[in-house]
Specification:
Strand order of the largest sheet: 10-9-11
Structural class: mainly alpha
Number of helices: 22
Shape: extended
Helix content: 55-70%
Strand content: 5-15%
Amino acid sequence: GTPQKYDPTFKGPIYDRGCTDIVCCVLLVVAIVGYVVVGGADHGVTVLCPPAWTHGDPRKVIYPTDSRGQFCGQQGTPNEYGPAPPDSGFPTECRPSPAAPRCPPPLQICVSKCPDRYLTYLTAYGNPSSLEYYRDFCTPEFRSSRKAPLEVLKDKECPAMLIPSTPLARRCFPAIQAKKGVIMVGNETTYDDGRGRRRNVTELLEGAKKANVVLETRQLAMKIFEDYTVSWYWIIIGLVIAMVASLIFIVLLRFLAGIMVWVMIVMLILVLGYGIFHCYMEYAKLKGEAGSDVSLTDLGFQTDLRVYLHLRQTWLAFMIILCVLELVIVLLLIFLRKRILIAIALIKEASRAIGHVMSSLLFPLCTFFLLCLCIAYWASTAVFLSTSNEAVYKVFNESACPFSGQTCKPETFNTSNVTKLCPDAQCLFAFYGGETAYHKYLIVLQFFNVFMFFWLANFVIALGQVTLAGAFASYYWAFKKPDDMPAFPLFSAFGRALRYHTGSLAFGSLVLAVVQVIRVTLEYLDHRLKAAENKFAKFLLSCLKCCFWCLEKFIKFLNRNAYIMIAIYGTNFCTSARNAFFLLMRNIIRVAVLDKVTDFLFFLGKLLIVGSVGILAFFFFTQRIKLVQDTAPPLNYYWVPILTVIVGSYLIAHGFFSVYGMCVDTLFLCFLEDLERNDGSAEKPYFMSQNLRKLLKKTNKGQPEA
């Protein structure tokens, strides 16, 4: 279909509308298909571009690898535990040289258990029982004890020494402990490195630091988990209380919005008045005191700011500033009184609208669920893409060899010419990488993954906004409220948005996604340039970050109002954005007043709900309420459920007020359109409520009152 024209004789929401921005809709579908291809959602499908889920292997992120690239830490296998970190377990004496420019990677072996004693291979070689124990920590190629010890160590079939270790996260870490301030490993302060030298156990500290952090974190996580297991139902009760409080606050705004706004304005005037009085009293009190008449310019800059409080000129300046603020606020009240009343009336009307579309309060859960799907698919695709590399093996040697550093295959290495020309050469695992076309373009696929995440996430948010706007617009443009409203306004608006305006939502979210990707790129460049000394580049980057931050905020504001116009008129994105922008610019003062009034009420509501629920949770979980003192569960950290309740209450309140804010913005644009398009005649009656008409002294001639 063709885009719906902007009808000057419009009297209500246009339900007979056509599809808008079809090109963007097709582009979104193609991009989603490409995204599925890149992610490879179907493991069994072979596509032209190899899917990440076919090539990727998340085990590369979860499990460590040995010197041959095999996965360690897989439970129930001989490779259940990984080796100790190279710098804390098996030291190497390799030094790069012209003959051997690349040192072989440190020996790392997957084992079925961690070593529990000090032992060197030279010591174990002469003891059959010790050698049998040592065999568990050698490579599978180590079969016979007839091989000379130096050959075994040279061929890296066994580590030079073992140290007592403890398993942690399927890895073996040195079992470091402190006794009376002395660092020890296995009750020893020194150990034999297997090469005839004694080393201090403090050299193992670096490898054990990470283990201690992980261990402490795991213990903390276990205690927090225990707190959740005994307090989860009380947390749910607290969140339900926050939900009920949010709903009650929204309902009460219908009756108390005006009172709260005017009380706050009066309190602000009284506070400023008291500030003026206090400044005058301090100014008068300092009269005649020594040093109080020194001017600020003569005193100059002082690090101790309390010095300025002993000057009469300081209090005179404070008094003048407060007087100016008081005067400005009083003048604004005089000239903007009617606009403040309109803002309050719209807020009250929004409360009535939500009362007729109660399902709108639960709609953010749908948006949240879709966003979780986007995040989950993006994260899984990013992991599979980042683990799509293959194990790369390189030739390592200690003497001169023309094949040093070249790629090799362990399966055929022993039968190749390399071993004949370089007898000491080894084919060892070097890193994960790849040289195919797919691996070369992995960074492009990661960039595409990030871009699609922003696009789809913004599309989901846009779909939620246009659905809510359509539901609330159907309330405003119903002449007899709520009799003329659809039976299911929210579902009707959702269906119209998907059927007719997927392209427009894709267009708006695409523009925002491009700006957000540019911001992410700038943040990445800023991170890379932190160590650079080029001040001009840093300054230019900071300016670009600031500009694109402002641009993102503006586009979000424009998109939000464009989606409202799309929901009302069914016009395409560009037309809706232009009409919304100029409509708001023609009523800029009303926009500013309504924005500040709603911001104040939402801030007050969030503060009231989160604060009251948080205080209640604090007194309950710290067992300070005598009536339920025995009911509160015993906790390791009482702040765990308290913080959970506070954060959850804020998210719940934010979800309720986001719906309320969308309702206010939608009714405001409808109100402005109503004023510009209708005149109260029988042909063009006003659709606004009777309270708004009474406030603006408008009437509908020849029409019954709504």
